[in-house]
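Data availability (excerpt). The following record was deposited with the supplementary files.
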Amino acid sequence: MFGFRGVPHPEQPSYEQLAARVAELLALVAQQGSLIESLQAEVAALRRTAGRDSSNSSQPPSQDGPAAKAKAGKREARRARPGRSQGGQKGHPGTGLKRVAVPDETRVLEPEACAGCGGDLAGAPGQISSSVQVSGIPAIALRVTEYLMMRRSCRCGHVTTAPAPSGVRGGPACYGPNAVAAATLLASADVIGIERAADLMSTLLGAPVPAGLVSRCLVRLDDALQAAGFEEALKDALKAADVLGTDESPAPLTTEATGQEDCGNPHVYTVRTMRAYTGGGADLVWYGAAGNRTKPSITGFGILDGFRGVLVRDDYGGYLSYDTQLAGVQQCLAHLYRYLDDACATGPAAQAWTGQAGDALREAATAVRTARNAGRTSLGPVLLASLRHQYDQAVAAGISVSLSRRWHKGNHPALVLARRLKRKACQVWLFASRFDVPPTNNGSENAIRGYKLAAKISGCWRTLATLQRHCRIRSYLTSARNHGHHPLAAIRDALGGTCWMPPIPIYQLTGYP
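Predicted structure:
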């Protein structure tokens, strides 16, 4: 290889050539390393998207796949207490049928003969062995009442005709107020459409009930509610409340309906009081619909723009502009738990801070519930400071470990979440200082869940106007029922001109800031 000692062979590259080659290879390795890191971030993003379900995002449980449902089952199994049986636990008050003090009818049942010798027991001494109260309804059958409206002539020459009974419309044959109220109630429920309600009424009554009749019943009730000014009164009552929750959900309309101007993204909204959380009384629930999910639509409802209390909500941007006029905002912790789980999934080792932040919030929610049940109005300052310190430490760590983590586009989602939790910490922790504010917006989510169920069963609404009508009727029946007014009675009252109206809440001073 060497002709003379120390003299390189003519074909051997020089030091300068080797150095240039090494520099070229190092640049290639750096380029490949950057590409690998970028691809790893993209793969992590794809895995995050593929692994999202109702437990770590706002995706509804109905859209979860088999893998997500299996994961949920394992999660519930881990949470289950050992040795705890299914169903209601010992000490649970229950909500089953209860005995009444004075039954409508009492029947005495006698044994037919002696079970020993077969002898006659007539006149034999005896006593009550046991009793059972059976609550039932009479056999359903139409009862036809014919009203004869008399016409009388007065001495003055004027002829007066008796009016038809209240609630009776049409002729020469029509259904009475109770049948109309029952059909209206069935059709206004989220689980039964108009056609099914008509078919069910026909089966129960043994007489034809056309779908058109049921549809007209809904129109009559909606007309009565609008004439009475029910929705305006409900909105006034909501604006006077101390705490409200709000949520929204997509609402399916026909292709023709969504093709109309400003109706390309229809949503159902709810705004409700949150008094059931503290046991402070019955709740008012309002439903409304709009063709989109924009701030002007929300403002157009005329509730939140005049509200000055505390709003419990998620972090949807359409609500942010109201913050300056509110007494406070409570971010829904249920949403935050899902976002923390989602951030943790991007790298469990690097994102361990999410568990600490979530544990601090859960422990605080439990402490608040325990204190409220014990009649206290605040947490101990030492406990609250300790939990808040754990949370602040976790969020600071989240920002620190996520700053250098690459993402395929923009900032890493864990960094975005950690910065948001720091920026809005006061909105996250309001529930810990005001015991009348629930930590989650589950009440609003549950209130609006029926519309998702209705979409599954009935498919879609034909127009935005019919959806808005459905919302008005549901607002009336839900709020009236919460206040102890039977839905059938509420329908009869409205059709008879005496619509149930929501009371304006009168709150005493609570001492909260």
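Summary of structural features: Confidence is low (pLDDT under 50) at residues 507-513.
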